[in-house]
Amino acid sequence: MSITCPKCGDENPDGTRFCVVCGEYLAWERHDPEDDTRRPQRAEPPPQEQHAELAVGLSDSSLACAPGELVTTTVTVRNKGTRVERAKVTVEGGAASYATVVPEELVIQPDEAAECVVTFAPPRSSSVPAGAASFTVRARSQVSSGITAAAEGYCVVAGFDDLSVELSPKDSRGWWMTQHMVVFANQGNLTHRVRVRAEDAENELRFSRPAPGLLIAPGRTELALRVWARPGLTGPARQIPFAAKVDVDDGGKTIRADGTRTVLPLAMSWPLKAVVAVVVLALVAAVAFNAWRGEQEQAVLDRETYLAGSGTLTDGYTSVETSTLPDEAKIFLTPDLSQGSWAEAEPGWLPFTGAVGVTRRGWNTFSVQGLDESNVAGMGFNYLIVRDPKGTLNGRPYEAGSGSIQPGERQVSIPAGTATSESVILLTVEVDGLPADHVAGLRVDTKEDGGFTVATLDLVPAPMEIGFNWVVIDSDDSSVAGAGTTTSGDPARIDASADSGVVLLTTDVTHSGLSGAAAPAVYVDDQDGDGFTVSAFTGPAVGFDYLVVERRQ
After folding, report:
1. Which of 5, 40, 155, 178 is the most exposed, fewest CB within 10 Å of its CB?
2. Is the model more confident about 261 or about 516?
3. Closest among 307, 338, 214, 204 to 261, alpha carbons compared
4. If you average pLDDT over residues 349-370, what whole number do you get?
5. Of 157, 160, 217, 214, nearest in space to 186 by CA
6. What strands, in cross-sheet order, belong to the sheet with 481-485?
7. Segment holding 107, helix H or strand E
């Protein structure tokens, strides 16, 4: 193999180091391919892979602060990516409204961290409720779209109390009934449970009964307070001071709001006084004329002792009109599915528990409502109004009163001097307006000489104060009053002359073995001239007490 001289182009024998013609050095031109495989080759470095990632940490994720003060936590944002990051830090969640971040943006080198401070400063205002408010600190990349990181925590805001009460208007004028508003101005951040009562020193006024266990949230709340008076026929107007007293948080403190009720006389001038005098004389004459009707007068008196009738719920609610309904009157209710559109419903299909209660009363009306808010249109009910604390019903002596089960309690003991282990007892829930919390019906749990125990049907602690009416009747005539027990799935038959009578019922577990267990409400299933049947809405066999009274509306 020859070697060509790059200078003169002459061919030289293989192995020649210098050209024989021009003397050019030839060794540097040699190229041996095998040398390439023996010499180490310098590799090109691979390109670096780029990625973006952030991480967030908090120096303290559990904070506590009083309104009007501030607390801080340090936020550490780490750049776990390969590029320089610019991150914006924000606060989200319930505590975000009173949080600030300084600085809001951080520039962070790869594999390094930067810090900012979040300050929480809840204002001393009712707009920020007491308790734990969660928050999320989020770092969002302003360089790489979609790259975020977050850390969570919570800030516990302490409570403060600033509740005031006043009457609006403070003064009212009228003959019979006037209305005031009890105005609650809760400028604190706590929700209070209150009980409102009203009274006057001379006991000349009567007041509506606001709902017990009323919850007053931060802000402004108004509650109607109706005031009744008995005007005189003549004479000057009378100013009667009274007070609305608000017991806060189970008697923790009492707030008083004073008002004045001016009672106007019916006759304001001498001509009117003369007319009134004539009317009074006529009334006296009428009373004297009827004085000889002793037996008839006694019958009228007996008729005014109680009222009894029936009604039907419309969309789970109705209002019953009656004659004057004094505050001391006790109202009792019983579902009656033998009347109304539910009398034609398919047997066994009952989409509700059936307990009903009195949810509001006025001067001559009261409201009836399903306590579990599931009673549908067309469900019938019976009612009994007892005017006096003691008297007779169908010739049987009775004793009536009121009681309440306190929030968190399941039952309460009621003293009743006429009660025995054989007494018939009726119960009915009465609250002013149906609350948002579930209110169960009631049952008789135990009986003994001198008293009895009332419990919730489901034995669940009361979510609020549950007011109720009770009446105790002693009877040796089972066609008028007594006790019975349904069987599982089958009604109980009671023989009585009840064709035109009104039947009242109350669940009584003292003779059905359900003491200590949940029990259903009972209802009138059917009624005819020979008696009536009683069924339970749900569940096993259950005992009940019953009373049959003459219909008087």
Report:
1. 40
2. 261
3. 204
4. 76
5. 217
6. 481-485, 543-550, 501-507
7. strand 105-108
Q: How far apart are CA 367 and CA 373, in angstroms?
A: 14
State residue 292's pLDDT score: 47
- 8-state DSSP, 236: S
User: How many other C-beta atoms lie within 10 A of the C-beta of residue 500?
Assistant: 9
The pTM of this model reads 0.48
CB 473 within 8 A of CB 489: no
Distances (CA, A) of 243 to 46, 78, 105, 133, 167: 89, 64, 59, 39, 9
* Measured distance CA(213)–CA(73) in Å, rounded: 40
Q: Are 160 and 190 in contact (CB under 8 A)?
A: yes
β-strand partners of 355: none
In the predicted structure, residue 242 carries a pLDDT above the cut 50:
yes
> Using CA atoms, how far apart are residues 77 and 43, in angstroms rounded to an integer?
38
Query: What integer is the mean pLDDT of 270-276?
Result: 54
Long-range contacts of 44-50 (CB under 8 A, 24+ apart): 48/82, 49/82, 50/81, 50/82, 50/83
Nearest partner of 241 among 350, 141, 315, 167, judged by Cα? 167
**Tokens, residue 321:** 């009109």
Burial classification of residue 141, based on how many CB atoms lie within 10 Å of its CB (0-12 exposed, 13-18 middle, 19 or more buried): buried
What mean pLDDT, rounded, does the chain reach?
81
The pLDDT tens digits for 462-500 are 888 889 999 999 888 888 888 988 876 678 888 876 566
Residue 66: burial class (beta carbons within 10 Å; 0-12, 13-18, 19+):
middle
For residue 295, list its beta bridge partners.
none
The larger pLDDT score, comparing residue 291 to residue 363, is at 363
SS3 of 342, please?
helix
Give the pair of three-digit tokens for residue 404.
């309440």
Residue 406, pLDDT above cutoff 80 = yes
With beta carbons less than 8 A apart as the criterion, state whether 200 and 239 touch: no
Tokens 């209710």, located at residue: 333
